[in-house]
Design a protein that fits this description.
One of its GO terms (cellular component) is cytoplasm. With 385 residues, the chain is mainly alpha-helical. The protein has 14 helices and 5 strands. The radius of gyration is 35 Å and the shape is flat.
C-alpha cells in the first residue's frame, strides 16, 4: 500500500513536470513570436517607401510583453511543480527509512563461502579482473578452476554475439550425453540456427549437406521441428517470405544465448541466477518488513538479535522459493527438523509442537482446531517435503 502511494505521488509529480515544461515552452514561444514580428518591422525601416518610427515599435513591443507577463506565468507553473515535489520528498522521508542498518542482524557466515559467492558473481558476469582481485585479497585459490570454466562460457557467448556458432557447437558436442540426460535440446537448436545461417547466404546445397550430417539424427525424436527446418529449403533467395523466420530475429539469438548460459551453469553445478543477485534482491523485497519489525521491537525495548527466528513472516515472491516449506497454521512457526509437520487422521497438518500443546499427553485425545475430528499424538504421522 505504501509503495502504491509513493508511485501515485511520483506520477503526479511527473505529470506536473510535463505540464510545467509545456507551459514554459508556450510562454517562450509567445515571447519569441512577438520579438520576431518586431524585428521584421524594424528591418522595414530601411525601406524609404515605408518609413517606420523605431521608438514606437519598441514601445509597442514592451506593451505586448507586459501583457504576456511571462515571468508571472513561469513562476506560477514552477510553483505548482515545487509544491508537488515538496510533498513527494516528505512522503519519501516519512515512508522510506534512510538508515537500513537497524534491520541488520548479526549472523555468523562462512567467509570462505561468501568469498566464493562474490568471486563467482563477477566471473559469471564476465568481470574477471574484479573476480581475480577478490580471490587474491581473500586468498581463495580454489576458485581458479571456476574462473576458467566461466571464461569458456563468455568466449562462447561473445562468439554468438557476432553470429559465430562454432565454439557453442563444439561445447554441446563435448557434453552431449549430459545434455541429453537433462532433457535439453540445445544441440538441435544450435544446429538449426547454423543451418539457417547457411541458407541465408543462399547456398542450398551446403545447407542440405549440413542438415544431412547434423540435423538428420534428431529427425526421429523431433519430427515436427525437422519438417519446419526442411521447409526452409524452399525459400532460398527469398527468405523474408519464409513462415519459419523466427530464427533470424535478434530476440531468438538472445533466447538461444540465455539457454546456453543456463545449461552451462547447470553442468557446472551452479544456479541459473547468481546467488549474490538473488540474495540482494530477496533482501530488498523483505527489507520493509524487517525495518518495521526493528522499529516495533525498539519501541517495546526488546532485542530481536537474540531470536532464533523472526516473529513475523517475510513474504517473498515465487521466484525466491526454491523448495517446499510448511508454516504451522496454529503457531505460525516454520517447520524444522526439531518441529516437523505432522499429518493428523483428518488430513489436517500442524507442527509437532502445536500438536503436543493441544494434546498435553501422548495418549490424550484432542480435537483438531480446524474440524470436529479427534486424534491422539500416536495417530499423527510426520510429513517429509
Amino acid at each position: 500500500m505504501e509503495l502504491n502511494t509513493i508511485r501515485d505521488t511520483f506520477d503526479r509529480v511527473t505529470k506536473q513536470q510535463k505540464l510545467s515544461s509545456s507551459k514554459s515552452q508556450e510562454v517562450i514561444d509567445q515571447v519569441e513570436q512577438e520579438i520576431e514580428q518586431t524585428l521584421v518591422k524594424i528591418q522595414s525601416v530601411q525601406d524609404p517607401l515605408f518609413p517606420v518610427d523605431q521608438k514606437s515599435i519598441l514601445t509597442e513591443l514592451k506593451l505586448k510583453l507586459n501583457s504576456v507577463n511571462a515571468l508571472h506565468q513561469l513562476e506560477g507553473s514552477q510553483k505548482d511543480l515545487n509544491i508537488n515535489l515538496g510533498k513527494y520528498q516528505k512522503l519519501l522521508e516519512r515512508t522510506l527509512t534512510p538508515d537500513i542498518s537497524k534491520a541488520n542482524r548479526n549472523v555468523d557466515f562462512d567467509s570462505h563461502i561468501v568469498n566464493q559467492i562474490i568471486a563467482c558473481h563477477f566471473y559469471r558476469h564476465g568481470l574477471f579482473d574484479l573476480g581475480d582481485s577478490i580471490i587474491n585479497e581473500a586468498g581463495e585459490p580454489d576458485a581458479t578452476a571456476l574462473r576458467s570454466q566461466f571464461l569458456e562460457m563468455h568466449q562462447i557467448i561473445e562468439a554468438m554475439r557476432v553470429r559465430d556458432l562454432q565454439p557453442a557447437l563444439k561445447w554441446v558436442s563435448a557434453y552431449r550425453e549430459k545434455l541429453v540426460e537433462s532433457g535439453s535440446d540445445l544441440e538441435l537448436k544450435l544446429h538449426h540456427q547454423q543451418f539457417i545461417e547457411i541458407l541465408q547466404n543462399g547456398n542450398r546445397a551446403d545447407a542440405l549437406r549440413y542438415a544431412t550430417i547434423y540435423l538428420a539424427p534428431f529427425a526421429a525424436l523431433h519430427k515436427d521441428e525437422f519438417q519446419k527446418i526442411m521447409g526452409c529449403l524452399l525459400y532460398v533467395g527469398r527468405f523474408d517470405s519464409c513462415p519459419y523466420t523466427e530464427s533470424t530475429s535478434p530476440i531468438h539469438w538472445e533466447k538461444l544465448t540465455e539457454e546456453l548460459t543456463r545449461q552451462f551453469c547447470t553442468l557446472l553445478g551452479q544456479s541459473n541466477e547468481s546467488p549474490l543477485s538473488v540474495a540482494v534482491a530477496a533482501g530488498i523485497e523483505g527489507l520493509p518488513t524487517l525495518l518495521k519489525l526493528a522499529n516495533v521491537m525498539a519501541v517495546k525495548k526488546q532485542e530481536w538479535q537474540a531470536m532464533k527466528q523472526l516473529p513475523v513472516p517475510v513474504e517473498l515472491g515465487k521466484e525466491f522459493q526454491f523448495h517446499s516449506i510448511f508454516v504451522c497454521p496454529v503457531s505460525r512457526d516454520q517447520g524444522s527438523e526439531e518441529n516437523p509437520p505432522m499429518l493428523m487422521p483428518c488430513l489436517h497438518v500442524l507442527c509437532k509442537q502445536s500438536i503436543m500443546m493441544l494434546s498435553k499427553s501422548s495418549t490424550r485425545i484432542f480435537k483438531c482446531p480446524y474440524c470436529p475430528a479427534e486424534a491422539t499424538v500416536l495417530l499423527c504421522r510426520r510429513l517429509y517435503f
